[in-house]
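Researcher: Go.
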Amino acid sequence: MIITRDAIELNPEFPFLIMEQVLYEKDNQEDFFHWHSYCEITYIKKGHGYYYVNGRRYEVHEKDLIIFNNVELHGWQIEDDQMEVVVMIFPAEFVSMPLTMFDNDYLRPFMSRGSNFRNKIGADEENADQIVDIIQDISREWKCAGVGYRLMIKSQILRILTLLIRHYQKCGTGKEESMLLSDKNRSMKRIETALYYINSHYTEKLSLEKAAAVACMSPAYFSTYFKSVTHYGFSEYVTKLRLKKVKELEKTTDLNMFQIAMDCGFSNMSNFYRLNKKYGDSLDDRSTTPLQRQGAIRKHS
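Model: Structure:
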């Protein structure tokens, strides 16, 4: 499995982007998911698939909506040949620079994550049609770029955020907030540093203590927070990353299994066979856990 951060660059003068994408079933990639530094609202224009967010699985169809904040791991898996989506992204600062307490209310659907919170808003739920219509209006404004289009887009974004507030208030979700989004963002950046280190040094001997030091966290806190973010313990994440690399090398090289296992960070064949028996089958089994069924690709936010 690989966890990474999507680094789409937004125009600092107008940090907003809306784009239509076609996601293909052939591009599904197991064990690959990510997060990013902005808020995202996506609606399904056509097709059928699944989104995975923080370990939860959401089946999506035409005109369904799904939202992410900037610390939520997510990805997708296409069930039909393809799925067409409209993706809209913007940082929290897009609402106001700097944020005031009043403007912060607009971001409540992205900042609060109660136990009953659902990232998906179904096409048949109240306000969903209205939000989709507004997104389509925004897309037209973005493409035409007429006089005042930036003001129009921003006002439409605020309309959507207000409708989201009403939706989640009515559903009774998003009322609990165990950690402020800014605190989550800081911790996520520290975890990102550790993940980059792990993904770059998986062939070497890795320790929890070293990864924690890279993240500037105590080993105990790092272990707890790492699992809360990735849904895997540190050792399990490293093992499954190595096993994934083994499978890739099996398909792309003529090396024997001993050489492949050693090149992927396993210390001996006994250890490799034991861990492969424990975890290896799950890498190909889509019925195991949601995060093992992630289908995110780097180009998608």
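Model: The longest strand covers residues 82-90.
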